[in-house]
Amino acid sequence: MVMRDALVEITEWAGGGLAARLFRCRVDNQDFDYPNALTFQPLTLDPAKLPPLDTVANVEEYGTKIRSELASHPAIKAELTQIFGAPADALLKFFISLPAGEQYRWEALCESPPRKFLAHECAVSRLASMNDNPADVRMFSGLIRMAAFLSPAQIPAANEFASIVTQVAAARAAGLNVECTIYLGDENLLTPPAAGWPAGVKVAPIPGDVEAMDRLLVEKPVEILHFFCHGVATVGLQALEFANINDTDIEAKSGSVAVSLERLNQILMLTKTTWLTVLNCCSGGKVVARLHSMARTLTKRGSPVTIGMAEPILDTDASTFSSAFYEKLFAMMRDCLVGAAPNSLVMLDCASAVIEARRRVHNKYLVAPPDAFGRWTLPLLYERGAPLVVKLVPAEVTIDPEMKRRIDTVAGMLRVLPPTTPANMRKDILGLLDNDPKVPAEFRPNAFGVIGAA
Prior knowledge:
Helix content is 31%, strand content 23%. The protein is of the alpha/beta class. Strands 1, 2, 3, 4, 5, 8, 10, 11, 12, 13, 17, 18 and 20 form a 13-stranded mixed β-sheet that branches. A 3-stranded mixed β-sheet has the order 9-21-19, with helices on one face. A 3-stranded antiparallel β-sheet has the order 14-15-16. β2 (18-27) and β3 form a beta hairpin.
């Protein structure tokens, strides 16, 4: 089995068009050089001339046009031929440096005839950065905590709620130690069934205002964040909007709890706990004006992996996505984390869960209604240049929140120092971790602020 990893860069070209190049290609972790791979090739793409992503025929036409234009670059053409030949053993990543490039559904790449959509088997993702920085290692103490905020104004959350409860319960039954607190804006959903909520599931009203939401996100950090809400943008400000209990009771057209993306990023950078964020929103992955998508913004700074939606999604499709996504994600996490050795570093690949969710939505609309087929292209997977890596904390060692803050603060100080910083200065900063209570050696960053480095 040969593993391929290709990175295509999309940038602006003269006259407002787009151009592409094969920025990097690796085969079995070894660089593979194509002639003129780094030369940009202009793409003849116009969103007004592409068909809508609705029927099978239109999605196929859209995907084959995208492939044809990318294949105008000889190196990209050669690499796509290899990837389409063995998609399950390949990674195809896009780094898109301008909002105009984000509007295209690169995930719809199609080879025809016979019709073959690459994203049904291959990990197709978008990068927030092309830098090969060290992995942002997150610590794992044996419990995966999840928080789901389900409350878009005037859109029912019952299906999304049921999907998440079902998958958390199934994952726990299969041996994964996961707990989820679900915050709801519909009072009718807060009443537990006669048998009570399944083990590992807690249900609470969504915070009533942005200050309460802020405190909750800071004081109760989690590994998995899930938002089912509205994505809004006003005068360049991006925010996630939630309806609280009162909003739902009076059938308000918009929610009164709006968490700015900038603040959410600050919180996630502060806590350094979250592995994955899901924006199962009306506009979570859609480019707003000339801003990059919300999903990309979060990935670049606060969340190592983010899944957003490319355009408004129906509540029934959102729940189909969530059911398939978490079923596969929890299975992957169980296989990777349960039984792993203490202090080991584990790379988590969330792409397989996105592939499964895309397939599930694809199969749902394969026959009818005819204009819904393209909904499988909605999920967009954003990653950083480095993979998501977690470090398993030994069972006998615990780190309280204050110690974790010390570790993250020292690591952050070391990472921003210039390369010319004297070694003794770095050593002195590391010495702050010797103060009582002393930080165990296995949780300390190295002199450059990298946690988990050898």
